[in-house]
Write a structure and sequence with these properties.
The protein has 10 helices and no strands. It is an all-alpha fold and 271 residues long. The N and C termini lie close together (9 Å). The longest helix has 35 residues.
Amino acid sequence: MQAARLPARRGIFWLIAGFRLYRNNPPLLTAVTLGYLLGMQLPLILLPFIGPFLLPLLLPMLTLVVGNAARMAEREQMRPEGLFAHLRAQRGPLLRLGGIQLAGAIMLLLLIMLVEGGELRELNAQDPQTLAVLGRLLLLATPLLLAFWFAPFLVGWDCVAPVKAVFFSFVAAWRNWRAFLAYTAGLALVAVLAPGLLLILAGSLSPSLLNILFVVVRVLLLFVLAPVLSASVYVSYRDVFHARPGDEALPAGEGDERDEDEAGEGDAAHR
């Protein structure tokens, strides 16, 4: 499985292209992203004892549905059955990938408990050590996040075996750490720094303005930024694993008919 090595600026491109995909079909990407977020919460709410173990098993399938929505938005298609493409055919491998993700989550939890002295403390914004704790948690979770960043798409669309998909995902992310760093910096700017400065400015002017702006920012983060991020994950997969000559300037939303047969080609080329 070949993963392109991309320059740092491509990380910013992923965010911009994700926004272009969002503009192609805002209702589709917003609805599917909200469904994804709801799907992550339901097992924890309805099945509090087994939900934390069930969720990692389902995450690859949920992620693939979001990816299917992004591909449909890119091709400007609206086929309800397209949302669930490849789920039935790849159900077994996706569940096995979920099992690997569950094992990784358990190992991460044990590692965090070891680093934090054998206990999980509730994070408190008033605690001066909260920032340091969050930094350690992010550092520990990053390898697991990168190992499963591309894996659901590799299993679902390219028919790569689950273990190989996790390996390829991590290696591809490592090869493109500069692009991921730029992507993270751009995300921090858009999702944290800019809204934070805006809220601070509004608070210095008027408490009422602050309350109104706080609601507006939350709505924009949920209904605009979250779908854009979902689409940008798909763009990063396409950019790393299926870039073709001329993709350097290819804006998301232009025809991508070449992907129609990717699953079949991937099955023959990557098994």
